[in-house]
Amino acid sequence: MGIITRVNNLVRQYGFKAVFTKIVGQAFDRFYEWRTGIDTLSIRKLETLTVSSGSKELGNYYEGSRVMPLRCLIPIMRSMVAADSAFVDCGCGKGKVLLIAAECGVRQVCGVEFAHELCDIARANWQRVYRSDDQSHHCEIVCSDILQYDIRDNDSMFFLFNPFDPIVLKGLLERIFQSHRECPRKIVIAVAFLGSEYADVFLKFPAFVRKKDVIYWACSFTLFTVE
Ligand SMILES: C[S@@+](CC[C@H](N)C(=O)[O-])C[C@H]1O[C@@H](n2cnc3c(N)ncnc32)[C@H](O)[C@@H]1O
User: Fold this and answer.
1) Which CATH number belongs to the domain containing residue 159 in this structure?
2) Which of 29, 77, 99, 113 to mutate to test the pocket of ligand 1 (most atoms within 8 A of CB)?
3) Model's pTM, two decimal places?
4) Which tens digits make up the pLDDT trace of 96-139?
5) Rounded Cα–Cα distance for residues 157 and 179 (Å)
6) Ligand 1 centre distance from Cα of residue 21 (Å)
């Protein structure tokens, strides 16, 4: 199918504004990649990657988030938690979300990723954009299954873009809930493109309140809080 037919079909399905916004948003991403010299746009299937902790069968493949929606979302997340809060991308892939979180003023960012090759790429991408002697931000890439990650007392912003099966999400929410019990604080969890299976898992945890549903640049995010 040609590009014009594809765009026509999308306009019929979603409307002109949504398709235009998506196309312009994608152009921003290409510009960002060109300006920074990194590649976060190409998809990586899990079959081709090395995973030594966690289950590949319960994980989803790598696809990067978009720059412009994140630039709108992250300041909202920051406004909902304490100023010294750290940001955790659960399944960080090539680390793009961490780069944008730092750009939005978050001083401490952490990416948890179980595929070794993606962790190496995420570290290289960070070094390329923020030099290693940069004191204004602290970035850590933890190469591990998300369920093995030790949640720190100031980890208060969690981001999820279609990383894993709802079974893993349930385990993660139990761990976040436990961390909140041990160290009460404001926590926000942003889920991109919340589907019904993920929504059902959140319903099992009444402490997680569905606070906001937002759409930025044709990408939808749902924000849950624990107070
Ligand atoms: C759709 S990508 C999202 C990447 C990144 N968060 C972003 O938004 O640009 C999902 C990522 O989660 C990782 N992943 C899947 N299951 C995981 C697990 N159990 N522990 C850690 N990472 C996991 C995958 O390897 C993949 O890189």
Assistant:
1) 3.40.50.150
2) 113
3) 0.94
4) 999 999 999 999 999 999 999 999 999 999 999 997 667 789 99
5) 13
6) 25
